[in-house]
Every structure is written in structure tokens, then in C-alpha cells.
Amino acid sequence: MSGGNGKSDGGAPPDHGDWRDGDRPRDPLDAVPDALDPPAWAGESPHDAIFTSPELWGGEAEVRDNAYGPPIPSRFPDIESVAGEVRELERRVRARLTPVFPLEVRRNPPLRSILRRYRQFAMRDRSAVVDEMGRDPVYASRFEPALDFLYRRYFRTRCQGVEHVPMAGRAILVANHSGALPYDALMLMRAVEREHPAHRQVRPLLEDEVFHFPYLGTFLNRLGGVRACPENAEKLLEEEQLVAVFPEGIQGIGKLYRERYRLQRFGRGGFVKLALRTGSPIIPVAVVGAEEATPMLAKITWLARLLGLPHLPVTPLFPLLGPAGLLPLPSKWLVRFGEPIDLGAQAGAGDAEDRLLVARLADSVRTKVQDMIGDLLSQRGSSAFT
Amino acid sequence: MVAITGACTYLGTELIKLLEVDQRYQRVLALDIRRPDLPADLIKTEHHTVDLTVPTVGSQLAALLRGVDTVIHGAFLSFPTHAASWAHELEDVGTMHVLDACAQAAPARLMLLSTTMVYGASAGNPNWLSETAPLRGLPGSRYVTDKVRAEVQVARHAEEHPETAVAVLRFAPLLGPTVTNYVTRFFSRPLVPVLMGHDPLLQFVHESDAVQALKRAVDRDVSGAFNIVGNGVLPYSTVLALMGRVPVPMPHFVARRLYRALWATQIAATPPTFLDFLRYLCVADGSRAERLLGFRPRYDVQRAIQDFAGLTPEDEPDIARAQG
Fold first, then answer.
1. Model ipTM?
2. Least confident among A22-26, A73-77, B136-140, B186-190
3. Residue A79 within any structural domain of the chain
């Protein structure tokens, strides 16, 4: 092979990229002069036609299939068929790993009777239909006896002024929040559902720390709780439902026993804006007894931060008795509903952006709730448990 | 004349079947990398091979879209893939090509087929997300991020080209007897992960409802975003119970690691970021579509689940009996 020829052709390396499209790669040996090529000087004389015309020269011999006997099978499999087999294998593995059964297979699953039994078992205490905020009526009715027991026998709850809750139509119940666990939300729901002549359902708005708490948030959601945000509250009120808000939020259930029944700040008055925008009356509610049911003696801040909890309470029973320590003590409970406050008389929907007005209205509601708590405490007397 | 990119997707193919029998439409351009699975005797529909990942597709699209009144851009993947850069080329850059071609051809209407996943599943979501909710997406998920970026591009296009009415249809996860997507793959397994203590509400739209909604949106001259969702929601655990799938509870940090490993080894078809949908709410409010499109879903979430799982009416009394 002459060096000059190899170099001049080496500028364009053989391109194997488009093999599969049927284009054979150019053979690099084509560039090397061989016996089949006309010599370099061909064409100088008229007699040189013998080199340039294939008829005279003969050209390349045609080799027919099987001219030399049957083809010898190669020891190496054809690269294309190997690639095809690998692709097929990969497809099968993938199909097995991510099965999407066609409908006929899904209609007749193997062990169909077992599947039916399992579905029965799995659906035993849940409803196939939940309301749009996630309340499951079957699940809620399963827990009704236990909550009734807590309400009537355990806490011996006395309910006052339930007639202030309207028979129909939207309203916002504004209550104090206390105790290490949100038992007060559950008891407020029970109070209206049992004592009110229309047996209305209350939808408590839960702060994020409670709503996203594992198990607790889900449990309260199935019973009717809703994540506290303006969109949810407005949707519920527009459907003429009763909404309970705890403006103290996580500060309310995070306060220590020695600060009991001292109302914390009422947030940024979101409930007032809500009432102004939707034109709903505000019903102040005082709940007394929750502080003694789960009295928070201390908080373990560092451990709570480690576990990602809002706070880790130390009550007389928790964490001493483990999870059983989260059960409440049998304190005596009082729930009082105050007279509805119609903000529409004092301000219009456009005033929801007036921060000073909102703060003033929120403060007046806060004072009202605090006064009612004071009344109830003096009514209850010296012992919290009788 | 209607042009559909992503004609091989479920919605694209079904829409072509409906347009074919509708007198109001003369021609339908089916654009995809392969021929959609359609009967051979269609007279209005013509297929053109268009690969949105090819850099020169812009001029091809511009030539094809000349004289088209309605462009429906639906060339999106229905399940996350490991070929993330290819998916990015197809969904994000491909949307750019389509929009550039639309800017030249100036069709009267442009429609984007998106999903409600663009809202993302986060702790701050209200129970019902309206169309004005921010498109948070899923941090760390390229599948969702590409769709959010496509939406952002389309929104910008709508601002710059007021002569084109731009509508965005955000579909809840499609469920039904025939459709195949990441949801049907996830629920096809007998064992399904559950994040301990978390049980968010899930939302689906029945596949035939989704097609009807799409057809309505094509028929009507509407613009803006629409959530296309089915009736009702169900907790994740109830969905599993109705389908007869066995939940495997695990803490979410375990599930995240497990799914990271399963995804990396290509055993699971669900990336770990999707576990957020099993933890937080991502439910969209379809009232705007009902108001402006007149779309009212015929099937509720229970029916979608029944149809997907292939349950027959004789399976239903069992549940009623189980609840007493």
C-alpha cells in the first residue's frame, strides 16, 4: 500500500454510523490500486480502452450464492439478531416489571374469590363516597360511640347557649384552643351535633401542624376537619356550613399549664377577614376543661425539633406511660356559645383589607371569648374534676 | 383545519376519531413520530411524521401549520422516563418549536394539553386548587418541571400573540379501562406503597370524560386555563381498597430511599419525587370548565376505579354488605 494514497483517503474516515440504513460503508481498500483498477497511465493511448471498458477487461467476477457449496455457518452470531434478542429480552423484563394488564385480564384476575373477600375486608369501615373535603361518613359513624362516651360520661360536658348557633346557614365559631392535643375540636363538634336541635355538623379548621401530623391529621380529616386556609374556609361557608376556627393556632395548644386559659394572640385576624368577605356571623365559643384533660407541664423543645414536631408535651402521663399517656384525664368540661356578632353592621366586605379595623374587630372577639372563659371558670368552682 | 401534535397519545388518537365523524371539520393533521393507531379508512386525517426532538423540526412545522386554524399541542409523555434529557428535548424544547411555528402560521387557536400535576403536591395546597393557583411543580422531578416549563412558555406566547386564543387544559390523572399512563402502571401492581400516617385525597378523571372535555374545548372558542377533573375525591387508602390492592405501609423517609433505589435500578416506574402525591393534596377544582365549557363529567371517581380495575356490578353488593 502506498503511503501517499492511504493518507489522501484518510481525511474521510469510514463512517459506520448509517450502516443500518442499508448504506454499505466505503471500503478503505478501494483507494488502494489493485489488479482490477486501470493503471495510472491508462488513457494515454487509444489502445488503452482495454483497461477502461469492462467488456474488454472483464471487470469483477460475479459470485453466485452457493457457487462454492452451502454457506458455512459462522461461529459468531449475526450482530443484528443479537441486538434484536437483547431488545426483546429488555422489553419482556420491562413488561414484567411494570405490568399493565389488559382489561380482560383485569376482569378475570387469578384467585378472584380471594380478591373479592379482600375488597370486602378492606372496605369494612370506610365509605366508598367521601364528601369533597374528605369526611368519610362510615368512618365517622364508627367513632361516634367512643366520642359520645368521652363527651357524656368521661368529660361530663355541659353545653350552654347552643341556641345561638343558627338552625341553617353559614356561621363561624371562634373558640379558644387548649390542651396538648386537639380534643377540644372533637368535643366542639360533638357538642353541636348532639345538643343543637338541627344536629348540625361543624367543620373545624386545623392548623398545618395538626393537619399534616401523621395519623392524627388523617383521622381528623375523615371526621370532618379541614386544613385551615382561606380558600377552604370560603368554600365551606359558601356552602352554608358551620366552620370552627381556633385563631390561637398552634400557640394555643402549645401553652403550658401555668398559662392555662390565658388566650394567646389571635393571629392576623384571618377569621375577621373571612367573616367580612363571606358575610358570615361570628359566634364566640369558650371551651373549659381541655387544659386539665391534657395539662402540659413542660415542653421538650430540643427533642421536638429533632423529631420535627411542633412541640413535645410532658403531661402527668406522657411520656411516662407511652402512647397510652396521650389519653386525657377526666376533667369536667363546659362549652358555652356566645351571642352571634354580625360584623356586617360594623363593616362591609370592602373593609377586609383595612388592617387596623380587622385588628380591632379581632380584638373585640378575643375579649369576648376571654370573658366567657372567666365566667365558666368561676361557674365550675374550685375543682376541675368534679 | 385542526393539527394535533402527539397524535399517538391516548387523547390525541381519541380526539381524531371524534373529529373524523364531525361535519364541522374538513381536515385533521395528525403529527407524531409514528402513525397513530387508527382505522385505515379515515378520509379527513392525514399523518405527517414530525419528530419534535429534531433541531430542524421548526421549518417543517411552520410549513405544515400554514392554513391551520386550531393547533392542539399534546406531545407529552404519559409516564416519567429515565431518558430525562430526551424528555426535556421533547416537552420543553419541542413546545418551543411548536410555539415558534404558531408564531409564523398565526392559527386562530392554540390548545395545550397539560396535567394537574403542574400544581404540585405540597403542604400548602388548599383542598381545591383553582386555575389561578401558582404552578409550583414538584421540586426535583424533571417530568413535572418540563410540563411546568411548557405551560410557562405557552402563557408567554398567549401574552405576546393576542390574535391567538390560547387554552390550557389541565387533566387530572386519567383512569379507565384502556388508557395507559403512570397512574395505571402504579396501580397495576398487587402491592402498593403507603406512607405511614398520610392518606391524602386523590382525584381522577375517567378517560371517556377526558375525551369529551377535550372535544368540547375544541368545539368552543375558549381561552385560559381549565381543570378537567372527574366528580368526587377519595382517600388514597379507599382507592386501594376499592381496587383490591394491598397497601404496604412504610415511613416516608424509608419509602423515599427505597424508591430512589428502585428507580435507579429501573425496577419501579415511579420516581421517588412522586411519593409527594401520596403525602400531600393535589386536587383541582373543575368548576371553571363546567361554567365555560359546559363540561360535566358523566363518571365519578368510583366508576373510574371500577372501570380501571375491571370490576363488574356483581362485585359491588359485597362492599355494601361489608359496611352493614
1. 0.90
2. A22-26
3. no
Task: Indicate the pTM of the whole model.
Answer: 0.82
Domain holding A288, by residue range, is 137-380
Copy the grid coordinates of residue B84: 430525562
Tens digits of residue pLDDT in B28-71: 999 999 888 888 888 899 999 999 999 999 999 999 999 999 99
Give how far Cα A61 sits from Cα of A50, A67, A146, Å: 17, 12, 99
Query: Do residues A115 and A106 make contact, with C-beta atoms less than 8 angstroms apart?
Result: no
Of B61, B87, B76, nearest in space to B3 by CA: B61
- Taking CA atoms, B162 is separated from A135, A342, B108, B221, B293, in Å, by 44, 46, 10, 14, 21
A61 occurs within a structural domain: no
Local confidence band at A317 (pLDDT 50, 70, 90 cut-offs): confident
The answer to whether residue A72 is domain-embedded is: no
**Residues of A with CB below 8 A from B127's CB?**
132-134, 226-227, 231-232, 235
* pLDDT surpasses 80 at A4: no
**Separation CA A320–CA A306 (nearest Å):** 19
CB contact under 8 A, A136 and B189: no
Task: For residue A115, list chain B residues with Cβ-Cβ distance below 8 A.
Answer: 244
Nearest partner of A245 among A151, A170, A295, A315, judged by Cα: A170
Higher pLDDT, A267 or A18: A267
Provide the H-helix boundaries in chain A.
3-10, 49-52, 54-57, 79-97, 103-107, 112-122, 137-149, 183-195, 208-211, 216-223, 230-238, 250-253, 270-278, 290-293, 301-307, 355-380
Say how many C-beta atoms besides its own lie within 10 A of residue A19's C-beta: 12
User: φ, ψ for residue A80 (rounded to 5)?
Assistant: -65, -45
Q: Which of A238, A265, A263 is nearest to A171 (CA)?
A: A238
φ and ψ of A261, to 5 deg: 60, 20
- d(C-alpha A326, C-alpha A328), whole Å: 6
CB pairs under 8 A between A and B: 126
Which among A103, A105, A129 has CB closest to B232? Answer: A129
How many domains does chain A fold into?
1
3-state secondary structure of A161: coil
Average the pLDDT over A218-242 and give the result. Answer: 95
CATH code for the domain of A214: 3.40.1130
